[in-house]
């Protein structure tokens, strides 16, 4: 199973992001959507699970949950916009992957058997940070994640 992960679009859905996420069977958006039409466009690729971020203060994006959990490919994914707001103990709750955004810094690390994945920002470039999304592939019990730079 291929899962596309995107965050911090801030109202900008780049065509390069759509290309990178093509083929995903589910898409996770870790907040700061900025415009609900972005979620509609992503739904053109696959079902979407999305949460709100700190800029999602009005309209349909403000109605998104602050956190969410979804089971995909037999693995539990927990979405929280800022990892600093994590309100559960993922290793106790059976979470396989904590997905966050907010920092615009892409990263993948494993702690206490839990993968922490930040896809970075796919929206407007911030400072000198790359413009990225992430892909997670599940094959049996194996999770493989990678960051995909979508803009140089």
Query: Structural class of the helix and strand makeup?
Result: alpha/beta
Rg, rounded, reads 14 Å
Tell me roughly what share of residues is in helical segments: 10-25%
Let me know the number of strands.
10
Mean pLDDT: 97
* Content of β-strand: 35-45%
CATH C-level name? Alpha Beta
Low-confidence stretches: none
Query: What are the secondary-structure elements, in order, as H or E?
Result: EHEHEHEEHEEEEE
CATH architecture: 4-Layer Sandwich
- Sheet of most strands: 5 strands, mixed
What is the terminal-to-terminal distance? 28 Å
Task: Explain what you see.
With 152 residues, the protein is of the alpha/beta class. The chain contains four helices and ten strands. Strand 1, helix 1 (15-21) and strand 2 (26-29) form a beta-alpha-beta unit. The radius of gyration is 14 Å and the shape is globular.
Task: Write the topology of this structure.
Blueprint: E1 2-6, H1 15-21, E2 26-29, H2 36-43, E3 48-50, H3 59-62, E4 67-72, E5 75-80, H4 90-93, E6 97-99, E7 107-111, E8 114-118, E9 131-139, E10 142-151
Parallel strand pairs: 1-2, 2-3, 5-6, 6-8
Antiparallel strand pairs: 1-9, 4-5, 7-8, 9-10
Question: What attributes characterize this protein structure?
Answer:
single chain, 152 residues, alpha/beta, Purple Acid Phosphatase, chain A, domain 2, five-stranded mixed β-sheet, 10 strands, 15% helix, 37% strand, globular
Short recap of the structure:
The protein is of the alpha/beta class and 152 residues long. It has one domain (2-151): Metallo-dependent phosphatases (Purple Acid Phosphatase, chain A, domain 2). It is built from four helices and ten strands, in the order E-H-E-H-E-H-E-E-H-E-E-E-E-E.
């Amino acid at each position: 199973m291929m899962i596309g992960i995107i965050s911090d679009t801030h109202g900008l859905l780049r065509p390069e992001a759509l290309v990178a996420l093509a083929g995903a069977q589910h898409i996770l958006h870790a907040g700061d959507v900025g415009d609900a039409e972005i979620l509609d466009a992503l739904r053109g690729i696959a079902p979407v699970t999305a949460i709100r971020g700190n800029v999602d203060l009005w309209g349909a994006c403000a109605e998104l949950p602050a956190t969410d959990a979804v089971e995909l490919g037999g693995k539990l994914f927990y979405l929280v916009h800022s990892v600093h707001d994590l309100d559960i103990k993922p290793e106790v709750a059976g979470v396989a992957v904590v997905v966050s955004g907010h920092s615009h810094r892409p990263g993948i690390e494993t702690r206490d058997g839990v993968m922490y994945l930040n896809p970075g920002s796919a929206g407007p470039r911030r400072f000198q940070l790359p413009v990225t999304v992430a892909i997670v592939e599940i094959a049996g019990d194996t999770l493989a994640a990678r960051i995909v730079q979508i803009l140089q």
